[in-house]
Amino acid sequence: MAVRHRLIKKSPSEVWAVLADGTRYADWVVGTASSYPVRGRWPQVHSAIGYEVRVGLWTLRNESVVRACVEEHELELEAIAGPLGTARIAIELRPWGEYTLVIIDEHPLQGAGGTLHNVAVEGLIQLRHRAMLKRLADVCEGDGQTQSRPARTEPRPA
After folding, report:
1. Per-residue model confidence as pLDDT tens digits over 35-56
2. % helix, strand, coil for the chain, step of 5
3. For the whole model, what pTM was predicted?
């Protein structure tokens, strides 16, 4: 189970504003090229966003579904990646003085990701989380290095 944390120099409500905007998912989630609404009102429970992952010439379309949500405190997602399987991603926001301690906990649930999960994969997830939390901090703290990508209302044609 990959657990990583980072102190973000913004209030929980400011960090939550980024997490609660499904169109900004690609701004901070490593490997995601774009995101778009699929159903419901993000981040309400059972709502979903779609996102694209580009690997060379291929574009994979995946989906994240909200499984639990406590505004400004907790967002639990199920990432659905087709044959690769599903994963639980829990994001917890803890007030830390005037800032926010963000804790991400991810583990595979089913499919190939769960079957092939091992120490090496765990290490790769840790590296991804380190980069993802840095990107989230950059977006929240507004250092200007992360440019917001235009959101789409639907995936690109195949």
Report:
1. 999 999 999 999 999 998 887 8
2. 30, 40, 30
3. 0.83
